[in-house]
Amino acid sequence: MTDNDKKTETDLSPQFARDAVEIVSREAVFEGFFTMQKLRLRHRLFRGGWSSEIERELFVRGAAVGVLLYDPVHELVALTEQFRIGALDRPEGPWCLEVVAGMVEESESLEAVARRELQEEAGLEVEQLHYIRSYMPSPGGSSERLHLFCALADLRGAEGHFGLDNEHEDIRLRVLPLQAVFDVLESHTEAGGPIDNAATVISLQWLQLNRARMGGG
């Protein structure tokens, strides 16, 4: 095996970059709470040459932040519970357990968004924020990128009802024993479970791996 072969096996970079896509046209077909665009494009092919022109719809959504609240001293986590239209036909119902989350506004830093959302959705101010990772929830049709944090706080007595009236938010903050949450996380089925959204699952699995260095366990 040559050095070039080894590099190919370990290099996970995609073969093509942004310049391998030609946008023929782009138009907004809906603009409301979210924006939907229709694009005509063509792109490079692995077998060589270019594709024919194709149409794709793009759900335009910018960067967002999610924050897992963790109390390492008392072995507690806090999750929000709120109505989600995308979960309307979910077997568990459309009220979902999630990490605190919100969209990034223009010129806001990720940490500033995290602290703003913690105040709005949990009534908490925290000193320590630990960056978990970023990821794209659904790159097949959405431009959204989500940045995850873990915030350390004393969660005793933190339960309550939060959210902004002008954004029609009705949020219940639930403080739960950490091990009980881990047990629920592992008891999922094909139909989902009480905790079945990507941001919360990823954050909790990260906490399982990093709990000791967060001061818990």
UniProtKB/TrEMBL annotation:
**Pfam families, sorted:** NUDIX
Tagged with keyword Coiled coil: no
- Record Gene3D superfamilies: Nucleoside Triphosphate Pyrophosphohydrolase
Return the broad EC class.
hydrolase
SUPFAM superfamilies in the cross-refs: Nudix
Residues holding Mg(2+): A101, E117, E121, E169
Q: Which reaction does it catalyse?
A: ADP-D-ribose + H2O = D-ribose 5-phosphate + AMP + 2 H(+)
Keyword Magnesium listed? The answer is: yes
Q: A single GO BP annotation from the record?
A: nucleoside phosphate metabolic process
Report the residue ranges where the short sequence motif Nudix box is annotated in this entry.
102-124
Enzyme Commission code(s) on record: 3.6.1.13
GO terms (molecular function) for this protein are: ADP-ribose diphosphatase activity; ADP-sugar diphosphatase activity; metal ion binding
InterPro entries in UniProt = NDP_pyrophosphatase (IPR004385), NUDIX_hydrolase-like_dom_sf (IPR015797), NUDIX_hydrolase_CS (IPR020084), NUDIX_hydrolase_dom (IPR000086)
Q: Which UniProt keywords apply?
A: Hydrolase, Magnesium, Metal-binding
Q: What Gene Ontology terms describe where this protein resides (cellular component)? A: cytosol
| Cofactor(s) the record lists | Mg(2+)
Q: Which residues form the Nudix hydrolase domain?
A: 60-199
The free-text function statement in the UniProt record for this protein reads:
Acts on ADP-mannose and ADP-glucose as well as ADP-ribose. Prevents glycogen biosynthesis. The reaction catalyzed by this enzyme is a limiting step of the gluconeogenic process.
Q: Per its UniProt record, what PANTHER family does this chain match?
A: ADP-RIBOSE PYROPHOSPHATASE, UDP/ADP-SUGAR PYROPHOSPHATASE
Q: Which family does it belong to?
A: Belongs to the Nudix hydrolase family. NudF subfamily.
Q: What is this protein called?
A: ADP-ribose pyrophosphatase
Q: Which organism is it from?
A: Microbulbifer rhizosphaerae
Taxonomic lineage is:
Bacteria, Pseudomonadati, Pseudomonadota, Gammaproteobacteria, Cellvibrionales
